[in-house]
Amino acid sequence: MNYKIAPSILNADFWNLEKEIKAVQCGGADFLHLDVIDGQFAPSISFGPTVIESIRKHCHLVFDVHLMIHEPGKYIPDFVNAGADIITIHAEGNYHLHRLVHQIKSYNKKAGVALNPATPISAIQYLINDLDMVLVMTVNPGFGGQPFIPNVLPKISELKELIEKKNAKVDIEVDGGITPAEAKMCADAGANVFVVGSYIFKNKAFDDKKRAVETIREALCAI
After folding, report:
1. Predicted local confidence at residue 193, as pLDDT
2. H helices then E strands: how many in the chain?
3. Within 10 A of 85 (CB to CB), how many other CB atoms are there?
4. Range of the domain at 8
5. Has 35 been annotated as catalytic?
6. Helices (H), 66-192
7. Per its database record, what is this protein's job (predicted)?
8. For position 146, what pLDDT does the model report?
9. Catalytic: which of 35, 64, 132, 171?
10. Is the pTM of this model over 0.90?
11. Active site residue 30
């Protein structure tokens, strides 16, 4: 399995953001996960396309942009122009999900759909072959540092079965409370992309963010 690690900068030290991003790059990160929160769809407010554009000028990683915002269709062009490679929108509240997915793909970007913990797989069942990625939230969106919700593990397995049944080429990403132990459990259930925030950027056991990324990789390689 080709596992991908996506450090989330939501919990990074923005005073030292350049240093933090360089450290995770050196640690072997594959994606940079960028949580865009508007304070309406989910609590908290993070950052927008201007910050992403600034980082894009200096970072070679795949930009995995997760939009937790109302009416994402209005802003998709802004995030495309800012340098997004993958744009993920939420199933919840977006009644024209098919249209939004194909809006993203019209810019030759990969399209993902995120599912909150209480949202069933059936929400994207008939869209699965149009997607590049499904993001299974393992916490409720809005804040970093929340504990992993283990009841979501069967949903990952169910999603994996759906993808195989439909012969779809879709990555399964997990986000929320991911440590080496949770990464291993999610990988066993079928996930292959791991968003890691607090464990990398807030963990006092690691002065070196590079080493934090490496421990996630080691846990996955041990499977």
Report:
1. 98
2. 8, 8
3. 16
4. 4-221
5. yes
6. 76-82, 97-105, 153-165, 180-189
7. Catalyzes the reversible epimerization of D-ribulose 5-phosphate to D-xylulose 5-phosphate.
8. 83
9. 35
10. yes
11. no
